[in-house]
Design brief:
By secondary structure, this protein is mainly alpha-helical. It folds into two domains: 54 residues, Arc Repressor Mutant, subunit A, CATH 1.10.10.60; 113 residues, Tetracycline Repressor, domain 2. Helices cover 65% and strands 0% of the residues. The chain is built from ten helices and no strands. Helix 1 crosses helix 4 and helix 2 crosses helix 3.
Amino acid sequence: MAQPGTGTTTREAIRTAATRLFQERGYAGATVRQIAAAAGADPALVIRHFKNKELLFLETMHLTIDDEPLLDVPVEVLGERLVDLVLGLDGGAQGVFLALVRGSNEPEILRRLKDTHEKVLIEPLRARLSGPDADIRARLAASVAAGLLHSLWVARDETLLGTDRATLVTRYGALIQHVLTPPLSGARPVGTPSVTGSSFL
C-alpha cells in the first residue's frame, strides 16, 4: 500500500492498480474510486498525479509486440509467422486490446487504438513489402489479423478457441499470405530486384 508523502510510490501504485482494473473491467467499468482503493490511495491523489481517468487510461494501456520475428523470415511465409506471433501474445496484451476496443467510444482512446493498429500490425508488414500497392496489401493483411484477434478475444468464438494452434497458423496464415502476396501481384521482399519481362512490379 502506498504511504502518504511518497509521491513516486503512490504514483506507481496507482498505475499498477489502474492497469489491472482497466484490463479486467474496461474503461467504463473501472472508476477513479475503485482504482484509488486498489492502490491504497485517496481518489484526490489519482487526479493530482494523472489529471483524469482518461489520461490515466492512456498512460497505462499500451499494446506492443516484438516485430523481430517478422523481419527474419522469407516474405513467402510472412502470413504464418504473423499468425503465430499474434497467437503467442500473452494475457496482458489481450487485456490491453480488449480495454482499447471497449473504450474506443472515447475519441482519445479511439485514436490510441488506431495508432496501435498502425504501429503493431501495419508498419511491420509494410516494411517487408514493395511495389505501388504495398501499403494497401499491408493494411488488408493487418485487418485480417485483427479480425482473428476479435474472433478469439472479443467474440470468444468457441470453435476457433478449441482449434489447435498449428491449424490456425497454417490456415489463417495462408489467408493472410494471399493478401500479402496475391498471384501476379509481384509482391517481394524489400530490396529484391525486379526482373525484366517478369510479373514483378
